Description:
Elements: H1 5-22, H2 30-40, E1 43-44, E2 47-48, E3 53-57, E4 60-63, H3 64-72, H4 76-79, H5 85-107, H6 114-132, H7 144-153, H8 155-158, E5 159-160, E6 163-171, H9 174-189, H10 195-206, H11 212-215, E7 218-222, H12 234-242, E8 253-255, E9 258-268, E10 271-272, H13 275-309, H14 316-330, H15 335-338
Antiparallel strand pairs: 1-2, 3-4, 5-10, 6-7, 6-9, 8-9
Amino acid sequence: MNINWNKSIAVIGPVVCIIAASGCRPERNLSESVEAVRSKVSTRSGERVDSPVVATIGDREIRFDEVVANLDSLPVFVRMRYKSPERRLEFLEAFVEFQVLALAAAAEGLGSDPKVVDVLKRDLASRYLIENFDLKQRTTDISEDVIREFYDSHPWLFSHPAQNHVFRILCSDRAQAAKVAYRVRSLVESATGDPLDVFREHVARSSVDPAAFRTSGDIGIYPSAGGSSASVPVQVAAAAEALDTLHQVSDPVEAPDGWSVLFLARQIPPVSKDIDQARAEIAGMILDARRLEARRALADSLIRPLKESGSLVVNHELLSDLAAADIAARKSPGPEKSR
């Protein structure tokens, strides 16, 4: 199949730039990302504004608004570096450099590399959903009554005491729990990376909790929000609530389901907001929920006919067997079990 590489690079280049910049970009929620996309669209009377050509690569034209759109996609603290005309030229040269590198990679056939194709597919899917679903819903469509109803029905989101987000390793006996607690505590205290990753590794290796593989040992927030009952025995819930130092590893806690070793992953400060203080936050949460619901409905409408026609087949039995084998492999004797 013949491919027009000039047109391909028009897609690949900006994607490469955006991906390169995303490593230092703070996470943004869905509504913020959508507004950023909307702000990039430059129109006059419903039509795209003509923009001057600032560079050419063969017959590939790079227009000023394309450069500005890519610059605007960067974090604020990066954009601040490119305010002067001289620094804008520097950015343009870097942008052209990415284009040329992408063209060279495409010429060597890397455009068909599965990893590259997957990145482009993810970008296409994201753009499709944003343009066709997310941009059609706005916070201005959310009435005051809906915001008030959400606030009244979720009081714990806007008024709660200090809380602990806790993970655990469940052991079958005290001796094993003591060994796990000693080993994990020493590794957490000397960790150079995220201590939670260290604890999760030992959840997979040591926990006998059937849900551990799915949850990575996450047992939730304590005290529980909204008056809901804890998913663990009361002894474990009380011990989880009593943890007071970030990344603390508890001594073994006895309960009817076994012996638990707890880990304080996050401390959540107390919150008290009235509806005026929470209004913008609530609107964003409702908007994100509506957009997610629309995305799921779309996925279901596309997947259902494929399943009904037999074009899409998921082998649930094989997946379950492989998952069980993986859990067994993760629970093979580790350092603390072989001592």
